[in-house]
């Protein structure tokens, strides 16, 4: 099998990322050398590759599904919003500019070639490249200059399948409308549909499936059932509204409760997944101080806009609560920077020197060069492997060592993302937090976080294998879009 496929969606969060991952894992099981690709991603969840490139976390997860090491070619363009109007542009793993939408449009021609070159590099190295679209291909205001959806499909000759989220309602209108809003050349590449997140008896859905096939002339390639508990590396904060992994307490044990501040520009909140998966731990995201009344640990997570999110924190009154706290506090990356005495930022917010929360003896200065690396170390006597993505450079002037940061009076800070994916370190940290709060936490033996992630990827592949038309997918990958697909009236 050799070729490519684009997985598009009727909306953001329709399930493109997980369907792409499921297809990658299915093909890898079949012995196919497969790689994921997303030409342009807008996400505040990112990770660092082995060679120091920053790419979207979802593509790292998809590479794991494919059984390969992630590279910058798998997500050549990453947009990281710092406000409602401006985003940092990361090209092949390195930031090149901070732009608004109009300025970004000026970069599109150059970036289109960057994306296509990366796609070609993957096609030369792998048998199959499974591409994930961005948002919806029917965002007609953005079609000119598009490099992530139909623009990529047209340039690379890719067949397209469109995923619709039936849980949102209106899935048939969304599927029909997606095709109908495309021009004729784009429509010719749309080769089938996948219904995602269906609850109930498929027999009751069949009349709708039959009619959408008649109306569009395109097959429904399968109906994926609602699968509660899937939590793999969502791309944006929409995923925070979904159920987080929560294994609950072991029989007869208490629950250690963690409250995470949901900043407007929260980033790398996948740091909390490993905590959520730990038996005996409950994690919730909060936006008001009253929601922290019963927690045992407060977490300030990463932020793409540290100074602005610190202002949000103060407006909500979290600063007063933290100053009077009786429970431990953990800051990760941007959250760690907020805990400092001062933050000097002429790079991200350009606010100059501002007062931090003053809970750690640390000063922070933002550097123009972004730190991107995969550090390793040890804490509590256990090895820790992590990754760093930050402009802010934190200088600790006291306290006790905590990973690369410090701890003082039950306040912990580190720039390391992914540290809690290290099972022994995570459980030792939670044991210390429980002791500080007079709670009972007993580490549960057994499956580690990496194994849980692998099980999730296998579940996705099982769903693809059981519920999608695999022969049809093989034909699309090998042969491309079928000739003679009917066209819907323009503007239909």
From TrEMBL:
InterPro entries: Class_I_gatase-like (IPR029062), CobQ/CobB/MinD/ParA_Nub-bd_dom (IPR002586), CobQ_GATase1 (IPR033949), CobQ_N (IPR047045), CobQ_synth (IPR004459), GATase_3 (IPR011698), P-loop_NTPase (IPR027417). The active site is at 333 (nucleophile), 417. Residues 257-424 form the CobB/CobQ-like glutamine amidotransferase domain. It comes from the Bacteria. Residues 6-230 form the CobQ/CobB/MinD/ParA nucleotide binding domain. The keyword Transferase does not apply. Keywords: Cobalamin biosynthesis, Glutamine amidotransferase. Pathway: Cofactor biosynthesis; adenosylcobalamin biosynthesis. Belongs to the CobB/CobQ family. CobQ subfamily. Catalyzes amidations at positions B, D, E, and G on adenosylcobyrinic A,C-diamide. NH(2) groups are provided by glutamine, and one molecule of ATP is hydrogenolyzed for each amidation. PANTHER family: COBYRIC ACID SYNTHASE, DETHIOBIOTIN SYNTHETASE. This is Cobyric acid synthase.
